[in-house]
Structures are given as structure tokens and as C-alpha cells.
Amino acid sequence: MQIRYEKVPRHQNTSFYCYTNTGPRFLYSMHHHPECEIVIVLSGSGKCYISGRVIDYRPGDAMMFGPDLPHTFESSVSENIASRAYVIQFRKTIAGGYLWQLPELEKCSRLIEKSARGLYFADILSVSGDLWDETAQHNSSAGRLTALLGLLETLSNAASVSILPREPVLAMSKNPGRLMQVLNYVHNNSGDEVSVEAAAAMAGMSVSGFCKFFKRQLGRPFNDYLIETRIESACEMLMKTSEPVINVCFASGFNNLSNFNRQFIKRRGMPPNRYRTAGKRK
Question: pLDDT tens across 217-262, in order?
């Protein structure tokens, strides 16, 4: 499973990009981009994967991702409702980065710094919806920028904000740290042979030391993270291809069908065939 680089569209006469994302359901590959991103959920629920963490979302919630923080969404297959969300993407270096040095924008600056780990806002739509409308639709460019700053300040004051634990942060860089190298190894090779021995060697640790390190960093054992990554890959193949389940099983990295089915039911609450049928019926 690749962590894909997403090129955010650039538009003339605007320093940020905002749009409404609508579809039968959200199901994207894990991706990253240099822009900060705010997603406000209007309809539909499901799971948001932020680097090594998974959170449940529902209508009214919002997530904020810092630059190059890998993330994706997977809508619930049990809902017969379209997924819809407001999305805003902007560079941290907007106005050369000097904007965030203004004392009036100190709260906004702290919010952006915190978003490097990922932020989750529960039931925020009621206090952010009007500002979104102004950000997207104001008839003047200055008005749209002012509305964006107002939205950031509103989010910075939100009582319902949760800063995701430090451990899952997987920032893309040309000189990745050992945790990032290991997670890239898992995501890029999950359909093939992945071993804890190879991961430990990559991190420059003994196997026992690496297992303790990984669990301390991500709050879950290495093998559990690997299995979840393979299940995510299987879900994507089930939705996007017509490959038989047994082919999906082996392509996603499992060695036998019975173990694949058992793990899939444990983590998705239904067998692979039913997951595919439910998802394509939406």
C-alpha cells in the first residue's frame, strides 16, 4: 500500500483552495501533501486514518492535518447515505510564513503547529459553518482570506479539540527518521513479505528492542499494525476491483484464506464478500 503524494490544484488570485467533496462514499488511498488541510464533515460517518492512528468521525466533526501528514478516509459501509465534506487546503508558507508571526494570529499559529500531529474536533459544524460559507463564497478575495483566519481562530478556541498522540506522526521528508522508514516499509511492501526482523534492522535495533519501541510509539504491536495495513489494502481492492476474494487475500499479503477471513471479520465486522456488496450498493 503506497503513501501517495497528492498535488493540490493551484488557482490564480487565491492563496488557498476550498471546495465541497461529495460522493457515494469516501474511500481513498493514504496520501500526503505540503498543504495544511481542514475537513468538516457534513454527512456520512466512518474512519479517518491519520498516519498510524484511526479515529471515528460523524457529521459535524472536523479534522485538521498539518503539512505532509499522511491521512485518508473510509466511509462506513453500513450507511445508505452520501458522504459530503467541506475541504480547505492552504500552505503553511502563505505570505512567506510571515502571516503567522503577527501577534494577532498567535492562536492560529499555535493551531497550525499542533496540526503537525493531527487534530480532531467533535461536533464543530455549528460554530464553523458560517465561516466556511464566507471562506468559499465571499465576493472579495480579502473577505475570503479574513474568513479563513476567522475559521482558524474559531478552531483554535474549540473546547472539543483533541490533539492526536505524538507517536503516530509520519512526516514526509527527504531524510526520514527510523519510525517513518519502518512505516513506509510496511505500507510499500504490505502485499509481499514483511518481517519484524527486517523492520528492526531498518531501525538499527534488536528485534526485542524494536518491538518495545514500536508499541511505545504507536500504542500497538508491530504485527497488529501490519495486519491492519493489509486489511486496509484489501478493502481498497474489494471496492475498486472485481478480483475474487482469494486473489485479494494473497495480493494484500495474507498467506491463507481462513486467516484473512478471520482477521477481516474481526476488524470490519463482516466477511469480505459482504463488505464488497455493501460498499458497492451505496
Answer: 666 799 998 998 898 789 878 888 899 999 999 999 999 999 999 9
If we measure between CA atoms, which residue out of 231, 236, 234 comes closest to residue 245?
234
- pTM (predicted TM-score): 0.61
Contacts of 194 (CB under 8 A, 6+ apart): 185, 186, 226, 253
> Is-contact 39 87, C-beta < 8 A?
yes
| 233 touches 190 (CB < 8 A) | yes
- Give the three cell numbers for residue 163: 490533539
Architecture of domain 4-163: Sandwich (2.60)
Question: Domain 178-281 is classified in which CATH homologous superfamily?
Answer: Homeodomain-like (1.10.10.60)
